[in-house]
Amino acid sequence: MYICIKKCTSRYSVPGTLLLHRMISSSEVATALRPFYFAVHPDLFGRYPQQRQVNEDSLKLLSAHLESLLSQKRILPSTPNTLPFYIRASNAPQDRGTFNLVKVPLERTIDTRLVLKRILEACNLPTEYVDKMPAAKNKPTTRSSSYEEGFQQQQQHHQSFYYRKRSEYNFGKDEDDQDDGPFEKEFDLFQFRMKKVRENETLRKWLRKQVVTATVRTKAVQELREEVEKLREDVKKQLGLREIIYDCGWNVEHFRGCLKSLEKLAELHPGALDGLRDRTLVFAAFTGVSLEGHVMLFTGDVQRNWLELIKTIDKHDSYLGKLPAYEYALSQVLRNIRIGRRKFMPKAQAMAYASHLRKITTALLDYLGKSKFPKTWPTDLSQFELVVESEAGPLMVSPTGQLIVPATCPGSLLVDFLTNHLAEALEKQRSYDRQKHIERDLHARCLAQFRLLSLTKDDSVTPDRMIECLEKLLAHGAGGGLELADLNLTITTYYSVLSDGTVCIPWDWKQ
């Protein structure tokens, strides 16, 4: 956030009047909309061309609208009142291919903060980051009656376009909105019902209704799991692979399809897959080579794209080999700070990560060419850990104490961020070091006490939340009506029984 003072030239202004504007930066906009981009990005709809095209076109219009607000403080005449976006109905495997059409409103105002808030609210995404932003204010140092009158007229004009507040009675629709199809209405009804379930459902009551379904699905998929495991071993042996990992969130049946496709590719192009020998192959959300050196194949790609990557794998490996040098260079610039990887983050490509490291190192060297690090800094920062992410990444301290920075962060902004957050990072780091041992102990106890087949958690569930959840489970125990024996349990933010029988419960479940 920065302050910009400029001479007012609007038709409502008094000549010579100075206005004080609070401006929101492009990096703040990117951070605020990060969960929105993750939900609607066209790359997530590779197998669904219609939804992909709609989201791609809408994102272009949204980008132009935001750019106009940030750089020119004006609304483009071509900007529509709403933009359509497709969002997955849920992350459950059985809902893959099912989408909800959401109409995202674009406020007719130059208040960027309000625009961001309405976008997130339309998609039921958290607005905590936006809520913490200071509200935009225009305050003249010299007032006049003509200015006040004109300014009030302008404000009334903006407010006439304001988004109406949602209510539980119309499920988020305006009373005069008659063009919504049954698809949108069904989506709003689904949201309303889910909200009521979360408010009233207790874990014990929910388990009693769902445990039979979960047990039946778990047993039904067991035969398929055994078939997939045999197929995995056969493909590993055929291609000389070290390991095959499935990391895309879809069900085990989809894993079998991926293995069959890889097996067929090897038959059609004998010898072309020799580059996979002694490698770990991962079916994931992108095609490339990960920071760990694993060969990643996007499950939505055609076989030709897989083949092209495997044929050019040496090129990706060359970038992988340069990463230690790039990380060392950045560490040296920042007084031996440790360069780490985020503990809860999606896999990244080695080629892109190398570019991110170069950008942030160059920005710091440019800063040091003009200034020096603050005197309050320790002479050695090796006890801290820095994580460099993509251009759209956040600027924050993670729950584990890591300092997360986007690759495009200017040197001055990065130095200022580190100066103000080193103490916070150290405290969170120490807290995480204590909590991870407690979490492991509680994890083992829950597995034994409830006779679970497996116990996992989503990346969004931090150690303190996991500890709270597991402690509550153990406090109530099997005698409290929690029937979990012979089930796969995942701690997340919602209730669900997946197609393979996995039971998902929110970490903050009610007794």
Strand content: 5-15%
- Looking at how many chains there are and whether they match, the oligomeric state comes to single chain
Count of spatially separate domains:
4
Q: What percent of the residues sit in helical stretches (DSSP H or I)? A: 40-55%
Residue-averaged pLDDT, rounded? Answer: 78
Describe this structure in words.
The chain is of the alpha/beta class. It has four domains: 24-132, no CATH class; 202-210 and 434-506, no CATH class; 217-317, no CATH class; 319-432, no CATH class. The protein is built from 14 helices and 17 strands. The two termini are 43 Å apart. Mean pLDDT is 78; it is low at 1-22 and 137-187. Residues 22-125 form the DUF4460 domain. Residues 214-241 form a coiled coil. It comes from Anopheles dirus. Pfam families: DUF4460, DUF4461.
Question: Which structural traits does this protein have?
Answer:
single chain, 511 residues, 4 domains, 4-stranded mixed beta sheet, disordered N terminus, T-cell activation inhibitor, mitochondrial, TCAIM, DUF4460, DUF4461
